[in-house]
Write a structure and sequence with these properties.
elongated, seven-stranded mixed β-sheet, 17 strands, five-stranded antiparallel β-sheet, alpha+beta, about 450 residues, 3 domains, 8 helices, Immunoglobulin-like, single chain
């Protein structure tokens, strides 16, 4: 009996190593292709979108009175002294030493001044529609976005100013359709407005009369990846936002906000599915953002690696149950029988890891489960009989391989499922073997040389 236990331990350890290698190979295949695949998806579909708030600045000209420098003062005094000498010589008198008046030591110059102007109001809306794309062993959370916004600002000066409105693009690697930056609230004269595209931003140039308010609109349709966000200032700068009204409408119910974002004031379900999220602030001072993480689908690559990594747990429980049933029913199984059972379990993970490249995840899981169960049941039928193969081995495999595998489809419940399964297995085996004389069992097994006849 001791030799059999050692043999089973060796078989189990070798199986564990095989699963560890398969898990490492699957993880390597996933990681090697993930970055290149992500780059390919970003080029085809677009990358993360981070829309920054517009920057409005005004410029004007004003006369500036500044003192003369020492060199300018010396040149000015020398010129005046030369004029005095010439005038004195013409009049036949001795020249006087020229001493400038204080107001002569200043000069007037016309300089352009600039000033950033805050937004009086921010009204924006983003419609997010998720559309997952699969490449290799990974699903990518791609989405389409329709962005529309309206902003207003005021010229605080008492004179007409030149206004520059610049709105950064949310992503350098995205494609934009129907992008518009236009004035609202009454058009200005055609020659006073100029809209153009500069490096990474849309720019509008106009002239604005004193103490005048103006509004403008900015919008586009585009596509992105994983995350959409709107920031009120670049970086982590804290800024003040007045009269904010923001609406984000989603096509999905799995709402998840990125770290460093502001939670909405209202969350309303939409009749067609998804939510309408609303942010309303009269005066917000923050360095945070409004954002949304796209829902993720279960990725075949990481799932296949996790199933392989946890497969020894399933095999351990299966071996444990088979060993207990062997003791209770006086069945004699050779370690080679356990070796082929372990190989049948391994075939599930091997087949699943390569099927998911070509088939859907549920279909791959179903095919791999059926193939592995057929191997186990058909083999155990030859070893101990059809009844034991179907009702004992088959049922145990469904519980410890198939159901444990299904638990990996539900993120966060895998550990709990395995724990509950382990406790229930322990409880059933303890009650089933409570009246078993283990000393007599081991003594009989050690003395036995011929396996008893098995009645299916």
């Amino acid at each position: 009996m001791l030799k059999r236990i050692i043999a089973l331990s060796v078989i189990f350890s070798c199986s564990w190593v095989a699963w560890a290698v398969l898990s490492a190979v699957t993880s390597m295949r996933t990681s090697e292709l993930s970055e290149s695949n992500r780059g390919d998806v970003s080029q085809l579909w677009g990358s993360e979108h981070t829309q920054l708030a517009p920057v409005v600045s005004i410029a004007w000209w004003e006369d500036v009175r500044r003192p003369l420098t020492d060199d300018e003062k010396a040149a000015y005094v020398a010129k005046k002294q030369e004029q005095e000498n010439a005038e004195a010589a013409a009049k036949g008198r001795a020249p006087r030493v020229y001493v400038p008046m204080p107001e002569e030591l200043y000069t007037l110059s016309r300089e352009q001044k600039q000033q950033a102007v805050g937004l009086d109001s921010t009204d924006l809306r983003a419609d997010l529609v998720v559309d997952h794309r699969k490449k290799g062993l990974l699903w990518f959370s791609t989405y389409s976005v329709g962005f529309a916004s309206r902003y207003s600002f005021t010229n605080p000066r008492e004179e007409t100013v030149d206004v520059r409105v610049s709105v950064p693009f949310p992503s350098p690697s995205a494609v934009y359709d129907n992008m518009k930056l236009e004035l609202d609230g009454g058009p200005l004269a055609e020659e006073q407005v100029q809209a153009k595209t500069e490096a990474g931003q849309m720019v509008a140039l106009l002239r604005l009369p004193p103490k005048t308010s103006k509004a403008f609109r900015f919008g586009y349709q585009s596509r992105g990846l994983d995350r959409w966000s709107y920031r009120f200032a670049a970086g982590t700068e804290v800024t003040k936002v007045d009269n904010l009204h923001a609406v984000v409408r989603t096509s999905f119910d799995a709402i998840d906000f990125p770290p460093g974002s502001i939670s909405p004031d209202r969350k309303t379900p939409r009749p067609a599915g998804g939510y309408e999220l609303t942010w309303e602030k009269d005066s917000l001072v923050s360095g945070l953002e409004i954002g949304m993480l796209m829902p993720r689908r279960l990725n075949p690559g990481p799932l296949a690696a996790a199933l392989s990594l946890h497969a020894p747990v399933s095999l351990f429980f299966f071996f444990f149950v088979m060993f207990m049933l062997q003791a209770l029913r006086d069945i004699r199984m050779h370690p080679m029988n356990y070796f082929f059972l372990a190989a049948s379990f391994f075939s599930f993970n091997l087949l699943f890891a390569y099927l998911v490249d070509h088939l859907t995840l549920p279909l791959s899981f179903a095919i791999a489960s059926v193939v592995s169960m057929l191997l186990v049941v058909s083999y155990m039928r030859l070893v101990v009989g059809a009844r034991f193969a179907v009702f004992a081995a088959g049922t145990s495999q469904i519980v410890y391989q198939v159901l444990f595998g299904v638990a990996h489809f539900f993120e966060g419940y895998t550990g709990l499922t395995i724990t509950v399964g382990a406790i229930l297995t322990l409880a059933v085996v303890m009650h089933a073997t409570g009246g078993l004389d283990w000393e007599e069992l081991f003594r009989k097994k050690s003395a036995a040389t011929v396996a008893p006849t098995i009645t299916p």
